[in-house]
Amino acid sequence: MRTGRMFHREAQTFLVHLFGQGLDDERYVVEKYRSLPGGEIRPVEVGQPKTKGSRRPRRKIVSRRAVRELRPERDEIIVCTGVKLAGSGVQLYGWQATGLLAARYAR
After folding, report:
1. 78: burial class by Cβ within 10 Å (0-12, 13-18, 19+)?
2. pTM above 0.85, yes or no
3. Cross-strand partners of 18
4. d(CA 68, CA 18)
5. Facing residues of 63 across strands?
6. What is the spatial distance between Cα 60 and Cα 44, in angstroms, rounded to a whole number?
7. What is the CA 48 to chain-centroid distance, rounded?
8. Alpha carbon distance 72, 78 (integer Å)
9. pLDDT tens for residues 28-82?
10. What is the 3-state secondary structure (H, E, C) of the chain?
11. Cβ-based neighbours of 107, under 8 Å, separated by 6 or more
């Protein structure tokens, strides 16, 4: 008999943080980031539209319905900011990106 905790691999746990007015806007700018084991956060360019000649990638704009269907990977952070209401949006954190289950004082 096992008494330890068993985690299911198919569990889809993530943290949702609404800021400002939440999902009141119709269109949102989506930015994706990857959290590394050392605590570093880096932007993800995979799936971003290509640009011609400039270093700055074009923004990916999606509808409110598409934002509601977004699901982050376990180490991914998704930030969706409103186009017209810049102070509104949502942030989605994968369970590893939150750092809630990380060993704080590991040596």
Report:
1. buried
2. no
3. 90
4. 12
5. 27
6. 12
7. 15
8. 7
9. 999 999 988 777 889 987 555 566 666 666 678 999 999 999 989 988 999 999 9
10. CCCCCCCCCCCCCEEEEEECCCCCCCEEEEEEEEECCCCCEEECCCCCCCCCCCCCCCCEEEEHHHHHHCCCCCCEEEEEEECCCCCCEEEEEEHHHHCCCCCCCCC
11. none
* Six-digit token string for 30: 């989506």
> Measured between alpha carbons, how far is 27 from 80 in angstroms, rounded to an integer?
9
Q: What are the structure tokens assigned to 83, written together?
A: 């186009």
Report the distance separating Cα 80 and Cα 17, nearest Å. 10
User: What does the pLDDT look like over 18-36, one tens digit per residue?
Assistant: 888 888 899 999 999 998 8
Q: Which amino acid is present at 61?
A: I
